[in-house]
# Entry
Amino acid sequence: MNKKVRTSKFNICLPVGDQSGHWVIFNGANGAYALVNDSLGQLLDTADKNDRILPPMDEKTYHFLMQRGFLDYEGQEIERVTGICKKIHDCNCQNIIMSIVPTLACNFDCEYCFERVIRKEHPERLKAYMSRDMVDAIFRQMERFVAEGKSIKNFVFFGGEPFLPRNKEIVSYACDKCDKQQIPMSVITNGYYLDEYLDIISKYNFTAVKITIDGPKEVHDARRKPSGKNGSFDRIVENALRALETGKTVTFRTNVNRENSHVIPQMAAEYERLGLTQYPNFAYYFCATMDSFEREDNVFSNVSVMGQIGNCCSNYCYNSAYARIYRRLKPLMTEKKFMELRSEFCVAHSGKYTVDPFGNVYTCWDLMHKEEAIVAKVDVEKGEFIYNENFSTWNQRTVDKIKKCKNCKYMMFCGGGCAAQAIESKKDIYEAYCDSFPEIFNQVAVQIAREYLDK
Ligand code: SF4
Ligand code: SF4
# Structure
């Protein structure tokens, strides 16, 4: 055995806690995975705590670990990870998600939304609506992307509230254009005026209709009120049922903070009572609100969300933070498939663009209240994006460039965390934002291993 070999600094060793003492081991730099016996699990775990000095082992075990990258020869793995990261990032940048904000205005006034900041600081911005010229220019830029060999994966309507009655003409105009180019569409809406858009979602290739519901009627209505009106719950549910009848996928997302966290255990039964779950095209999940838009005493983490769900469901698939990891880990652990590695945390660092009615282009759509998040301007005449210096800051935030992440065992599973949260909470986009990723990963991995061994 070679003395220059150590165990990898990216090894994650987790005891499954079953009777036969299995461990699951992962490598957070190359995505390797193995289910191993107690002695090998302990061996690697002990080495990890002992400066990664290679413990004595037989040839067969040595080759098994070396082949899968659980061992590191002379610290070469950092260079290798940087190379992998670049390749994945280059590939990801080929996939474009374009979204437009027909208006920044919304008929709701939710306490955790960035729209509130705009309403307070720049109310005049809420009066603007996207023009046809702007939509044309965006599509010309999309043609440029395609000419560069990129592929437009989805076209998203976002807001403000994209499906306000007054936006219908511009939304149909954009839908027609997508349709001609066979680009799938989706919408993030509060659902209040969805009835007025049923013809549109039926006619065009809408792959997702995402609606926010904050709890059962009394809770939702207290939190998500259309200005000047009573609650919105009944109307949204009615609209969702009609949308489900069209066969489109409708997903309810519940934004959770401390104030409404108690609703989580009630929602499965509530959706069943409302007749939503009888549709196979209905889905729902829970997600903690962004801490940075919350009062400190109202923050509720995704780990706590998961704890609540775990108390009431036999599996955790409805929680977004959990589900994202679960969906990626399950094929790796049970079907011997490769896991998708992440060079960046989200598409805001590869191919996502969101354009507001003024032609400001953002890669992160949760920061449309911040001038510093503008990465380009649409040149309506030329039909192209004119990028500014912020673009490379956003586009180059890959996990290998974040100091803390470079030494993190979970780096290529995680991707460095949400940049918007890093900016809001740490004032630096190149800071890590862990958001309990390691804890959630560990819980999910052990859960899947137990399910697998129980079969
Ligand atoms: S940076 Fe964060 S808030 Fe922005 S799009 Fe990505 S995950 Fe969402
Ligand atoms: S954000 Fe945190 S958990 Fe994720 S890779 Fe960076 S240091 Fe690790």
